[in-house]
Specification:
Elements lengths: L5 E4 L3 E5 L5 E6 L2 E4 L4 E4 L3 H18 L6 E4 L4 E5 L2 E2 L2 E8 L2 H7 L6 E11 L8 E2 L1 H6 L6 H24 L2 E12 L5 E4 L7 E5 L9 H4 L5 H13 L1
Antiparallel strand pairs: 1-2, 2-3, 3-7, 4-5, 6-7, 8-12, 9-10, 9-12, 10-11, 12-13, 12-14
Helix pairs in contact: 1-6
The structure holds uridine-5'-diphosphate.
Uridine-5'-diphosphate binds next to strand 9, helix 2, strand 12 and strand 14.
């Protein structure tokens, strides 16, 4: 399938139309952003790594009967996907405390949470993606049905179980990650966006070395080397 007009350009990907109105091509960019795009950078080849990592993880989820927008990887940078209407909620799943959770609630960095935490953030750059609850989702008109909110949470937990077990076998701790869901043309809620070291925190099980976008956020260097290591372990 060929790329037609660009439909949308986000921070990490460009979306192109195809000759099928229900199918798009996601092109993974080398750009890196953090802190609501206040910090910007570029890492040559990062897009190719994230495309391959995301594709492998979507294929893993498909093997576990989890519905996603992924159809197939076209080349190193481009992924064929079902077109969805993105639900403006960032669903964050946390196994270990770090990042904004430790800052907001004073939970100590690196502590294992007594149970997996699922949070919703309102996807709105102008507002800085605030934390929201079920009531806010309904008041904002994002999702009205409690059952749909419960479905999002259940899907996020199920995805966490699959990914956590997989990364564990690869010597990686899945600390936390962000998911985005969308409605497909049949109205089903399916997983969309990407699953990559841009949207996950992954720590080496032995050393706790960070192998994700925190290397960029915290100026730790070797961003690409870390992403390459994640891909190498996923494919091993
Ligand atoms: N995350 C993301 N995009 C965002 C915000 C968070 O992909 O806009 C991911 C982030 O990489 C981490 C998880 O969601 O894996 C939780 O992030 P947190 O809320 O701790 O925010 P941060 O500390 O990154 O600002």
């Amino acid at each position: 399938m060929e790329k037609q007009e660009m439909l949308y350009e986000g921070k990490g990907k460009k979306l192109f139309a195809t000759d099928d109105e229900h199918i798009v091509i996601a092109e993974f960019k080398d750009d890196l952003t953090a802190f609501n795009a206040e910090k910007k950078g570029k890492e040559s080849g990062k897009g190719e790594l994230n495309c391959q990592i995301s594709s492998a993880l979507f294929e893993l989820l498909a093997q576990h009967n989890i519905a996603t927008h992924y159809i197939k990887r076209l080349n190193m940078r481009d992924m064929l996907c079902k077109k969805v209407t993105i639900i403006p909620i960032e669903v964050v799943v946390r196994n270990i405390a770090t990042g904004s959770l430790t800052k907001r609630l004073g939970i100590s960095e690196g502590s294992i949470l007594p149970h997996t935490l699922v949070e919703f953030y309102y996807k709105d750059d102008a507002l800085g993606d605030p934390l929201i609850n079920d009531e806010h989702c309904k008041i904002l008109g994002i999702i009205q049905e409690q059952s749909q909110l419960e479905l999002l949470k259940a899907q996020a937990r199920q995805i966490n179980e699959v990914l956590k077990a997989f990364f564990d076998k690869k010597g990686l701790r899945l600390v936390d990650f962000k998911l985005e869901f969308g409605h497909d043309n049949a109205g089903n809620i399916i997983l969309a966006d990407e699953i990559s070291p841009d949207s996950c925190r992954l720590w080496d099980k032995q050393t706790n070395q960070k192998l994700d976008k925190d290397r960029f956020r915290e100026n730790l260097g070797s961003v690409k080397v870390a992403y390459e290591e994640v891909l190498r372990r996923i494919l091993a």
